[in-house]
Design a protein that fits this description.
689 residues; alpha/beta; Gyrase A, domain 2; Isoleucyl-tRNA Synthetase, Domain 1; 5-stranded parallel beta sheet; 4-stranded antiparallel beta sheet; 24 helices; 54% helix; Rossmann-like_a/b/a_fold; cytoplasm
């Protein structure tokens, strides 16, 4: 038990240090907003890189410590024999002909090499970083383990090897890889890794033949909770981020082969329905047979809330209707169902426009399960009486904010509903990983729910993962919360309509209406409108706020959906305009081999090969702006390639004189990668725009 406590203390200390480093990095980033001539800028950037490197190491160590705590294996820091005896070399394939996560492959390769070179450090994971494409002379990837290992040697006084000496030992023990052309040691001890062109040719050829395959991961059952609008209210801009981010995360995880449950936790229960039914009885006598349109429901809701706040008699009637609804009284139940059905139909219109798929399990679904959950807490002595209400502390130490499980009037709360929901999701749905895509304002609440679930042994850290994918608010161009000119919340349907209007104007400005058929124009209009709204959201780090601006998101330069969609359309047109048939690419590949002789061809190929690493990285961080940055990198790299490498050559009369089929195959591979990225992001590209 003492050893286990030591592991917990170590983990907590690592958590604190990691958070401090994150704060340092953010402060350093903020300090970088200096004039380019500022002599401190280079120093700050270098310090930022060091902090990021140290943070990455700490996070890996923290993960290992958490695993040790989870298995309750107490290994003392000086018992090296126990910690290394279980290490076995990772199998490295001798032939690879498909796109794989290159960073992961190199980590395995150099981790083995470290274990062979220094057996007492077996199990030490290699540190691999990609090299900027603008610094090709330093290779394509770097192994930077030698520096940290040198510090380890000095700390235990077992050796005084320099980082460069350590790097040489690692290189000697590195086995051959079908991905690596050569290794070079540079500077203080950096191991530069140069990729093989033959691997790139094989991987891209295979991709063109069979399509993009996801990197291999352990299949999990994952529940993603997102969107979650309230019944009897229209969806507004506040629902935009959760809906878009949640849909993209679901698409990413499905692409990786996981079993994904997309859940819409609707607000379909509670006091508001008592207010609405009581108000409808008076203002809309026929409510039992015909529910008013959603716009009227919205107005009715505001009126009923005003009366509820000001009229005590009305408040009593509203409470009575809630009691009747909860007891299953026929008229109240029918009215509630009518209201829910009207709202669902309106929500579905939004989801269809945004190409979002969800399964509904609203708050009402958990009513019976809340009763069962309260009994479970009572039986296990987790509930305490506090000023008439019954509470549950999230931790055994009884610190922080307690969850209110039963109110003083005997009613349940959101805390009760969320705890019943997480229990259902883990125990009945058998989810292994739950992702809540909810705004940052719910951070403390969800943290308490996760802690409470761990405390009452519903959520087991060894087997389950629960994440709060939080995000900042959407701002208007005035820097304030996005509202209409009158100060009202922007309705989502109005926002999408405005997007269609603006995108059509943009297409007509470029005279695309004179080139495209009416059907093609409509497809392009929707692709641009909905694509730019989604991409403007996803291209920003979700942890930050962002300014919603149609003018900026409809720009055709820079990292915007419009630029990417135009670039994709242009790439698709190259094969069409070649005069040759590339529709059956397998037949072309039987006679044409991809060549990567020009430096821009090679640069484009290496950029495409990053795709598996990118999606794996995002599956861990759930930060989708990284995929947007990758899409932009692919498009700008392709632009360099196209400007320097002729795919189709014509004479002065415009007659095609030469077609470079190898380069057109590279164009087709680029389109394939972009199409998969767009699918994950929820963009719908069109061949003609």
């Amino acid at each position: 038990m003492i050893s286990l406590k030591r592991e917990v203390d170590t983990l907590n200390e690592l958590e604190r240090t990691t958070n401090e480093l994150r704060a340092q990095i953010e402060r350093t980033k903020a300090s970088e907003i200096l004039d380019e001539q500022d002599e401190e800028l280079t120093k700050l950037q270098l310090e930022n890189m060091k902090l990021k490197h140290r943070l990455a190491i700490l996070e890996r160590v923290k993960a290992l410590e958490a695993k040790k705590q989870c298995t309750a294996t107490a290994i003392s820091s000086n018992n090296l024999t126990d910690s290394t005896s279980s290490f076995s070399a990772i199998a490295i394939p001798t032939t690879i002909e498909e796109m794989i996560p290159i960073s992961a492959h190199l980590i395995d390769l150099f981790t083995n090499a470290i274990a062979s070179a220094f057996p007492h450090l077996a199990g030490t994971s290699a540190v691999i970083t990609p090299v900027s494409s603008n610094a090709a002379k330093f290779g394509d990837y770097q192994c930077n383990s030698a520096m940290s290992l040198s510090k380890t040697f000095k700390a235990d006084q077992s050796s005084n090897k320099s980082p460069r000496d350590i790097a040489q030992e690692i290189v000697k023990q590195t086995t051959a890889s079908p991905l690596i052309d050569k290794l070079e040691i540079a500077g203080a001890g950096f191991i530069n890794v140069f990729l093989k062109k033959s691997y790139a040719v094989s991987a891209l050829t295979n991709t063109l033949r069979i399509g993009i395959k996801p990197p291999q991961v352990k299949r999990q059952r994952i529940l993603v909770d997102f969107s979650s609008p309230n019944i009897a209210k229209e969806m507004h801009v506040g629902h935009l981020r959760s809906t878009i981010i949640g849909e993209s995360i679901s698409r990413l995880l499905e692409f990786l082969g996981h079993d994904v449950l997309r859940i819409n936790h609707l607000g379909d229960w509670g006091t508001q329905f008592g207010m609405l039914i009581a108000h409808l009885e008076e203002r809309f006598p026929n409510f039992l047979n015909e529910s008013p349109p959603i716009g009227d429901l919205q107005a009715f809701y505001k009126e009923s809330k005003k009366r509820f706040d000001e009229d005590e008699e009305f408040k009593k009637r509203a409470y009575n209707r809630v009691v009747e609804l909860q007891s299953g009284e026929a008229n109240s139940t029918k009215a509630w169902k009518l209201i829910c059905d009207v709202s669902r139909k309106e929500f579905q219109k939004i989801y269809e426009r945004l190409d979002v798929k969800l399964s509904e399990k609203g708050e009402s679904f958990y009513q019976s399960r809340m009763v069962e959950f309260v009994k479970f807490l009572e039986q296990n002595n987790f509930l305490e009486l506090d000023d008439g209400r019954r509470i549950m502390w999230p931790t055994n130490e009884k610190t922080g904010i307690p969850l209110t499980i039963i109110k003083s009037d005997g009613g349940f709360t959101y805390d009760t509903s969320d705890m019943a929901a997480i229990r259902y999701r883990l125990e009945e749905e058998k989810a292994e990983w739950i992702i809540y895509v909810v705004d940052a304002g719910q951070s403390i609440h969800l943290q308490n729910v996760f802690l409470a679930a761990k405390r009452c042994r519903i959520l087991h850290p060894c087997y389950h993962r629960a994440d709060h994918v939080q995000f900042g608010v959407v701002l208007g161009e005035d820097g304030k919360k996005f509202k209409t000119r009158s100060g009202d919340t922007v309705k989502l349907t109005d926002l999408l309509d405005e997007g269609l209007k603006r995108s059509l104007a943009k297409l007509k400005e470029k005279e695309r209406d004179k080139v495209l058929t009416p059907e093609q124009l409509r497809a392009a209009q929707e692709s641009v409108a909905y694509g730019c709204i989604k991409y403007a959201d996803l291209s920003h780090n979700r942890l930050n706020e962002y300014v919603f601006s149609f003018d900026k998101m409809l720009e055709d330069r820079g990292n915007t959906a419009v630029y990417l969609l135009y670039a994709y359309s242009r790439i698709c047109s190259i094969a069409r305009n070649s005069g040759k048939d590339f529709s059956q690419v397998n037949k072309v590949l039987d006679t044409v081999k991809i060549e990567l002789e020009h430096e821009k061809e090679w640069k484009l190929a290496k950029t495409l090969l990053k795709f598996p690493d990118i999606v794996l990285k995002i599956s861990k961080s759930l930060l989708l702006h990284l995929l947007c940055e990758y899409c932009y990198e692919v498009c700008t790299t392709f632009s360099e390639f196209y400007d320097n490498c002729y795919c189709i050559e014509k004479d002065k009369y415009g007659v095609i004189t030469k077609v470079n089929c190898s380069r057109i195959l590279l164009c087709e591979a680029t389109a394939l990668v972009l199409r998969e990225c767009f699918n994950i992001l929820g963009l719908k590209p069109v061949d003609k725009i």
